[in-house]
Each structure stands twice: as structure tokens, then as C-alpha cells.
Amino acid sequence: MSTSDSHELDCGDVVEAVYLYLDGELSSDVIDNIRQHLDECSPCLREYGVEKEVKALIARSCCETAPEALRASVVQRLEVVRSEMTIQFRVD
Questions:
Q1: Does 1 fall in a domain?
Q2: pLDDT per position in the chain (92 positions), as tens?
Q3: Whose CA is closest to 78, among 22, 8, 12, 10?
Q4: For residues 6 and 66, is the Cβ–Cβ distance under 8 A?
Q5: DSSP code for 6
Q6: pTM score above 0.70
Q7: Which positions ≥6 away from 12 have C-beta within 8 Å?
Q8: Which of 30, 67, 77, 91 is most buried, judging by how many CB atoms fall within 10 Å of its CB?
């Protein structure tokens, strides 16, 4: 993976955002930028494919429901991280 100027987004940023991308947890602009990057960057596309398969495997394997307090805590933390990533993508 590279950090060359040929991509609008840095490969490291894309890989860090893969799970949020898979979950549709990013703004439409960021999703479009990541989608374009994946179309142009084979190493990131491979990483995306691996993460997508891991997510699917976990979904098939996990049948338990998290306690509501844990779920709320995770959702709150994800919202903080999402807003931090949105700010980061806007600054870059």
C-alpha cells in the first residue's frame, strides 16, 4: 500500500476506516472517496475483501446479544470515533 499522491486518500486512512465503511457508518462523501480509492488501489481492495470476510464470519458465528448498557457504550464510542474520522478526512 502506498501513500502516494496518486490517491486522494492515504492507504492507511482507508484501511483504518474499512469497518466503518462496511457498516455504512461514514458520511456519503467519505464513502464515495473510499469507494474511489478502492477502485484505484489493489492492495487496499484486497484488505477490504479480507475485512469483509472476517466481518461475515463473525456475524455467522456470533448469536449472542450484548447487554443494553454495553451496546449503548459501544455506540457512543463509535459516534466519537466517527466524528473524529470525519474531521480528519475534511482536514486532509
A1: no
A2: 444 445 678 898 898 888 899 988 899 999 999 999 999 999 999 999 999 998 888 888 877 788 999 999 999 998 888 888 776 666 55
A3: 22
A4: no
A5: T
A6: no
A7: 1, 3
A8: 30
